[in-house]
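Before the break, one more example. Copy the sequence into your notebook; we will annotate it together after we see the structure.
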Amino acid sequence: MIDNPFLSDTFTKIWLRHFNQDKPTYSFPCFNPLSFVKSSRWPIYVNTGKNYTKGISYSLFDDRTEGVENKVFLIYDVPTFLDLELNSSNTKLKLTKILQYPGYLVDLGNYTDFNQYFSTSFSKSSRYKLNKYKKRLESCFDISYKMYYGAIDPDQYRTIFVYFKQLLEKRFLDKGTTNNNLDPKEWNFYTEVAYPMILEKKASLFVIYNGDTPIGVTLNYFSDTIVFDAITVFDIDYEKFHLGSVTIMKLIEWSINQKFKYFDFSKGYFDYKKRWATKEYYFEYHLYYDKSSIISIVLGNTIALYFNLKQYFRDKNLNAKIHKLTFWFRNLQVKKNERERYLSIPIEGEMNLEKFIEINRDSDEWQDLKSNIFEFLYLNNSSEKDLKVKKSTLDKNRFVLECKDKRVILTMSKSN
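Here is what the structure looks like once it is written out:
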């Protein structure tokens, strides 16, 4: 991989400032072009960026091993689909490859345009459904798409990141689990690193807008040939419209048009990745240690055992349970904010709405009803701009949604 964004000066310097307190880095001639940070207690050297990258590439030169004596080197997240030059005849260093997360990508080089990829990868009925989501989204709302790549106004950038974080918080609160991206230290890093990398065309923000409001945001990184999908989120109130699928369609289309070779969904298994990808691969941790040193051998084998155990727990889905348990402990003092559930009943014929008054889009009631409102728009293929929402003056839990000739009444259902 040429021009790896995670080895760029910008990414490296900002990562070191956030996670290494600007302590010194170390370089070794045999590992090109990597730099390392050192453990404070042990002769263990870890690649700069650690597990915050989406794929590390490097070459190993076995004739340049000066300085590796009594040391252990850990290199995170090496994708198996990359053809790395790793000479295995080295007499000083032992290489152990530790299998970790699965990865998924689309080989864009096989397609001249998005339609060719789409027709090759999906059945006619699936293509119809996916196109329906996109068309329905665009007909119901004032939708626009923007790829910020090479230029972005600083104020616009800050605004997008505010929405980005809010949408992630909303998404994972709804799922009842923690998300490591929202850890303050990690989020501050992403907030600082993305802006200069966008200007350098090593990163981008893809945003779906409803009017002026971001409802879907994706942070991408770029090498010379690869688009890395790093973090994606969308407003869960638009669930019916499958914003995730719409986002992928637009990103793959853009990537093909820009002549990138791969679109990489990166680490971790999700059904949607397997459905859209054309190739599955794995991420490995590459562990090197001086095989003539007892200390290095013991440390190397201990590290390998640790990560193999972590992968075993991951395969058993224990990590997801831990995330849910962590979420529960962190929110012990927070009253669970469950969504109100409403029954939607079509209105047949005339109905006296004299005891109903219209509410506006900025009201709390509108916000509470958003998922119900958007489902109504989706099912009736109606535009948000034509919609009226009215509440009963006699019953605070009774509403009417109307759009041209379509009307339903919402009534509170019994709590689950």
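The longest strand covers residues 93-107. Confidence is low (pLDDT under 50) at residues 333-337. Try to locate both features in your own notes.
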